[in-house]
Amino acid sequence: MANVENRVNGSYRLTVILGYDEKGTPIRERKTVKAKNLKEAKKLLTLFEAEILNGKYFKAEDKMTLNNFFLQWLEKHAKDTLSPDTLQNYISILQKRILPKDGRFKLEDIKTIHVVNFIKDLKKNGQCLDRKDGKLSASSVLNCYKAFNNILSCAYKWKLIKENPAIGTKPPNRKATKSEVYSKEELSQLMQLLDDKPLFWKTLILLAVSTGAREGEIAGLEWIHVDFEKGTIRISYYRAYG
Known about the structure:
single chain; DNA polymerase, domain 1; 3 domains; 9 helices; 5 strands; 48% helix
């Protein structure tokens, strides 16, 4: 959404709404221009909105907020350097967790303590986006830190800030989990229990046990993945999850 406000002495204020924060307040980008009349001002508004949407609008450092910089990071850095899955994950984290709280801050005003508090809050109970009780996994907290660090690191590389405030934050550790595996006795018992079961379930369980494939990967199998001549089955990650 965009609009023009007539000011004084041939000045017009252009406003483009980028989105809304967690309280429903519009996140606006504004620019004051000189124009002969309202018609010309509306043309400038169209160009201004296009610059923002295409990631070509770049504000001066002293006015650059994290909200403003997000589009620059997305168009000129993230899309070219991150994998599609990581890109979507970081965008979601930034839009749902970081920008609503810290997006209004100027880049130069974001300090290490803001990142520290962000990580600390994520470790509290009830931080799941569905508002259910329980804590985020260590892996989820680490991904949130990586997203925040990535956008701040980009701002530092582009010399918009003197240092990356996320560097002074100790990233959360991803706790290693011990995998539980079947013993030989348990596998033997499982095979015995499958003797009188339908072929469908036998095939499904034997595939899972012998390949270690995930439920989604097995569910995504099609005949094109089966090579009867070679006696092989190809597990396609992107087929199952993409």
